[in-house]
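How a chain folds remains the central question behind the approach discussed here. No coordinates are needed to read the tokens, only the vocabulary itself. For completeness, the protein is quoted in full, as a sequence line and a line of structure tokens:
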Amino acid sequence: MPVKRILLITSWLLVLPCLIASPSLAGKGNGSSSGNGQNDSSGHGMHSPAGNGSSTSSGNGNLDQWWRELPQSERQMLHDRQELFQSLPQEQQERLRQRWQHYREMPPEERQQMQQKFRRWQEMDPDERDRLRGMYRKFKDLPEDQRRKVKEELYQLHEMPPAEQEQKRKEIYQRYFPGE
């Protein structure tokens, strides 16, 4: 289901900066999420993702250099996302870590397809995104056999011309979600 993949991509995009910014999650550094308290080169108090303030001697030189060259606004965004991630319940953090690992293990072609779908999602009209989110919520409430039937019918739409696709989509919607 494309909507499910889009939600997965969105999750990845939230987790990726957290993993980059948090050495304890990415398996780098000393496991501290806040470093050792050293200021960055701009003096704003942000910590390097290496967590120990060292450079190439720690093996994180490229990461440390990347962090120093990152604009302050992006550093702050990553820091905020890291805090958001750490505020999640442990089981949700673990689920996101597993999804991230699954994404990293995907073949490059599949990752590229996922990224293209996410870009289409971002470029989509906000009203259309809301409509799809609402439809997905309703879809999740259907019994398993009906969800399977809806998927089959929706996949058949790809073979139709665009004008027919929209008409058929409306028919499917009315059949599975009558009165809405």
In short: The two ends are 21 Å apart (CA to CA). Residues 2-120 form one domain.
